[in-house]
Amino acid sequence: MREALFVKQNTEKWKRFDEIQSANPDELADRFTEITNDLAYSKTFYPNSKTTAYLNGLASKLHYSLYKNKKEKSNRFLYFWQSELPLLFFEHKKQIIYALAFFLVSCAIGAISAKYDDTFIRLILGDGYVNMTNDNISKGDPFGVYKQENPFLMFIRIGANNIYVSLYTFVLGVIFSFGSITSLFRNGVMLGSFQYFFFSKGLGLQSVLVIWIHGTLEISAIVLAGAAGLVLGNSMLFPKTYTRKASILKGAKDGLKIVLGLIPIFIIAAFFESFITRHTEMPMWLSGFILTASATFIIWYVFIYPIQINKKTLI
């Protein structure tokens, strides 16, 4: 059967299953069985099509609705990070990859611009920060900026700021994804020029071992917030089989859940930056262990674990 005919024969059923939220457990189970059958057929004959991607997301959504009805309310909080958020990462993995690509390209632009334009770093980071860091370098304490503030007040300030930046980046996605891309670009250029600044001073490895203690989680979460903005923006641009209104509502809901799910990561990153990063004299193996563990967690939770969870929903 051609894909167009397959979609035409089933579109109304899929829309009905997707739009009607309330259903008893038996009805949900029947819907889930039908959708997984359609998904299996689509994966067999149209493995890389948008239809297969859509059905995969719908199957995950129905599985969540079915499973939620079996959960006690006390487990709802745990279930969000254990299953619901990873399934959202899986459903919107393309947006995550696009956001990461935009960000890495922006970092490269920032680093290259800083290399070939002596004034670029001051333009991006500001004269005050550059002068202060140069003074700290001359004093033999290049990362002294992390030691100047009371750690608890620093924790509150940085945590609140990072959560604000993530929400801001997400909301900008309403400008047809362009706003979130712009925010990713701005943060990427800043990071690229910032990192190049330390490499140009011969402090590249040391800067990585100090700054990325907290930066691994912080930057990863900002990229994911950008991906949430792309989810919102793309829901406006590409409604697929949804009505545009239903698509926007779903995109806004999914994107907001992703951003809210990042809050614990931002809190941990702020804790690291306020209480751990200031200990610039810590052994290389310890700082390396922290940033490696953070990177491993992000890769596992955002890319590997969601695949495992998604496979379980289809068994």
From TrEMBL:
The chain crosses the membrane at residues 96-114, 163-184, 219-238, 258-276, 282-304. Keywords: Membrane, Transmembrane, Transmembrane helix. InterPro entries: SpoIIM-like. It comes from the Bacteria. Signal peptide: none annotated. The keyword Transmembrane helix applies. This is Membrane protein. It comes from Pedobacter mendelii.
